[in-house]
Amino acid sequence: MEGSKTHSSESMPGDLSEALKEATKEVHEQAESTEFMKNFQRGQVSLQEFKMVLTSLYYIYSALEEEIERNKDHPAYIPVYFPAELHRKTALQEDLEYFYGPLWREEISCPESTQKYVNRLHYVGQHEPELLVAHAYTRYLGDLSGGQVLKKIAQKALHLPNTGEGLEFFTFEGVSNATKFKQLYRSRMNSIEMDPATKKRVLEEAKRAFLLNIQVFDELQKLVSQCHENGHPAQHKPELRTRGTSGAHEHGPAPVKEGEKTLMKHTGMLPSTPLVRWILVVSFLVTTVAVGLFAM
Ligand code: HEM
């Protein structure tokens, strides 16, 4: 992880980049310490959770990048328009296809908090485009920072191939040096002409963007917990149920068997395993009675 000293002299107090970092310091800490993120950092992430987070990110980046394209010639966005280097939608599509198979679009749906974030992105893009930079900053600079640590954790925890499949989201082909690119991005943000009132609104919007991300993580955590309570443990690895306990489970999930992975790849996020079992039992009983009656 890099430290805050990576900031170079191009950033001076009063610069938008410095102001954004300062204004979002507290919400960044809050985001890092959500239960979902804390578990992720410990390597406690199941395949199902990873698929859920990629799904939310797909909806978020689709909205963000749609609005970026709409505003790519807006003076308040032009300097930070870096589609080849940053845009994530295509990478997320590839990851979703890897995990869900070719019919991935039919397998996913947008959770409520993610939809709220998506709605805000569309609102900003269409009504207050001067605030769009706050959303781009929150996601892209975050992905180029902590995101790189999360990539390694996910790869290890989920036993993903080191060829990068399933992890395209975290791989920025067009960025050879993340630290240098972030410096360039900061200096471009600082070049956007902005009056103090607008700058203040951008800072508020960045805080709002962080809070929207926190709500997304909290909802995902809630969905995962509900899934456990409803007795769908087959989709989770056992260590998910032993979170917070000491011992070997603290060090990360057990390997996912290949067969299990394939099975999970082709099932939805909330499968009806007990229901299917129940239907099979009833069908079996009906068949047995029918055969018995026929034989009489
Ligand atoms: C486990 C969770 C996270 C970890 C470990 C993490 C870690 C980091 C690290 C190490 C940096 C670099 C700090 C620096 O350059 O001085 C960073 C920067 C950043 N992170 Fe995170 N982060 C996490 C979650 C998030 C989330 C959820 C968001 C927003 C959605 C986010 C947004 C950002 C942004 C915008 C920056 C750039 C700050 C700046 O230089 O202005 N991070 N993060």
TrEMBL record:
It is found in: Endoplasmic reticulum. Residues 18-28, 236-257 have a biased composition (Basic and acidic residues). InterPro entries: Haem_Oase (IPR002051), Haem_Oase-like (IPR016053), Haem_Oase-like_multi-hlx (IPR016084), Haem_oxygenase_CS (IPR018207). One of its GO terms (cellular component) is perinuclear region of cytoplasm. Residues 1-28, 229-257 are annotated as: Disordered. CDD domains: HemeO. Keywords: Endoplasmic reticulum, Heme, Iron, Membrane, Metal-binding, Oxidoreductase, Transmembrane, Transmembrane helix. Its EC number is 1.14.14.18. GO terms for molecular function: heme binding; heme oxygenase (decyclizing) activity; metal ion binding; protein homodimerization activity; structural molecule activity. It comes from the Eukaryota. Signal peptide: none annotated. The chain crosses the membrane at residues 275-295. Its main location: endoplasmic reticulum. Gene3D superfamilies: Heme oxygenase-like. One of its GO terms (biological process) is heme oxidation. It holds the Pfam family Heme_oxygenase. PANTHER family: HEME OXYGENASE, HEME OXYGENASE 1. Belongs to the heme oxygenase family. This is heme oxygenase (biliverdin-producing). It comes from Chrysemys picta bellii (Western painted turtle). The lineage of its organism: Eukaryota, Metazoa, Chordata, Craniata, Vertebrata. The gene is HMOX1.
